[in-house]
């Protein structure tokens, strides 16, 4: 039977409904993160098949990216330090950013996995549970600023 970490495929499917709840309801639960790994891999496959600079994640990419860089002009997006990212000070900065997309981006506050280091694959150690709008903001910045280019090159060279 297929298994991710200590979670079987049947457990992933049975627990998938839990993922529709807001991210703030979850601690860093490895079983929840494993469930999201399946969803995150879909994004990685898309990222590898299309030039990241032209990849559209939402109909609102331009607005999300603009607002992100206005609110977080110096944030490094290639490698995210989870402790810093989830610090009380950063949470206070993120809250108004996220809320501005409440009525614009579907499921903006739902839990989504983000790669801490964009040069690495989704693994338990390289995954951070974030809100969907944070994921979009950071991945859009990675795409537009060239940080996800290496993923596509790595994927193409591994298929040869």
TrEMBL record:
<dbReference type="GO" id="GO:0005737">
    <property type="term" value="C:cytoplasm"/>
</dbReference>
<feature type="domain" description="Polysaccharide biosynthesis">
    <location>
        <begin position="32"/>
        <end position="152"/>
    </location>
</feature>
<dbReference type="InterPro" id="IPR008476">
    <property type="entry name" value="PBDC1_metazoa/fungi"/>
</dbReference>
<dbReference type="InterPro" id="IPR023139">
    <property type="entry name" value="PBDC1-like_dom_sf"/>
</dbReference>
<dbReference type="InterPro" id="IPR021148">
    <property type="entry name" value="Polysacc_synth_dom"/>
</dbReference>
<dbReference type="Pfam" id="PF04669">
    <property type="entry name" value="PBDC1"/>
</dbReference>
<protein>
    <submittedName>
        <fullName>UPF0368 protein Cxorf26</fullName>
    </submittedName>
</protein>
